Amino acid sequence: MDAKIFVVAAAMVIVVTGSVAAQSLPYLSDTLKVPAYKAAFDALFRGERNLPAWLSAYRKNRNGAENAGRVEGGSYELYGVCEPHNCSDSRILVLFVPGGSRAWAVLITSLDTAGQISPNYKFLGHPDPQQRSILSSAKW
């Protein structure tokens, strides 16, 4: 009898923790309705020049192809947005601490150099090595 209770309890723990881990976060446009997230996001672009037109438009009207956010690197929230109809060549990944008080990002664009396509990474918000690793290795 005790063994059955233990098995049932263990199964419940697995189901509960599995559902929490699988839970995705909202889209970035929804997250940016929270003032702390919006302030941290806007701070990423202060003093930045030569941003792609689609990103400048996204900052104003939230028009972009978005992926739902997810937890990454243990406790960071990661969101992705790309240029509509050009996701493979121009996208931004944004990393927040929970609650949105700090943010870091990487703008990834494709460069065509002598017929070779290669990604160009522009980090925003001065991410530390761990944050850079999360941002540069994230797949969307």
Please tell me about this protein's structure:
A 5-stranded antiparallel sheet has the order 1-2-3-4-5, with helices on both faces. The chain has a single domain, classed as Inhibitor of vertebrate lysozyme, Ivy (3-Layer(aba) Sandwich), CATH 3.40.1420. The model is unreliable at 3-22 (pLDDT under 50). It has 5 helices and 5 strands, in the order ααααβββββα. The chain is of the alpha+beta class and 140 residues long.
Fourth CATH level, the homologous superfamily? Inhibitor of vertebrate lysozyme
Low-confidence stretches: 3-22
Mean pLDDT: 82
Please, how many domains?
1
Strand content: 25-35%
- From the spread of the alpha carbons, the general shape counts as globular
Spatial sequence of strands, sheet with the most strands: 1-2-3-4-5
Please bin the fraction of helical residues.
25-40%
Distance between the termini: 47 Å
Q: If you compute it from the alpha carbons, what radius of gyration comes out, rounded to the nearest whole angstrom? A: 19 Å
The major pleated sheet works out as:
5 strands, antiparallel
Features:
Inhibitor of vertebrate lysozyme, Ivy, 5 helices, 5 strands, 37% helix, disordered N terminus
How would you sum up this structure in a few lines?
With 140 residues, the protein is an alpha+beta fold.
Strand-helix topology:
Layout: H1 2-22, H2 28-31, H3 35-43, H4 53-61, E1 65-72, E2 76-82, E3 90-96, E4 103-113, E5 116-124, H5 129-137
Antiparallel strand pairs: 1-2, 2-3, 3-4, 4-5
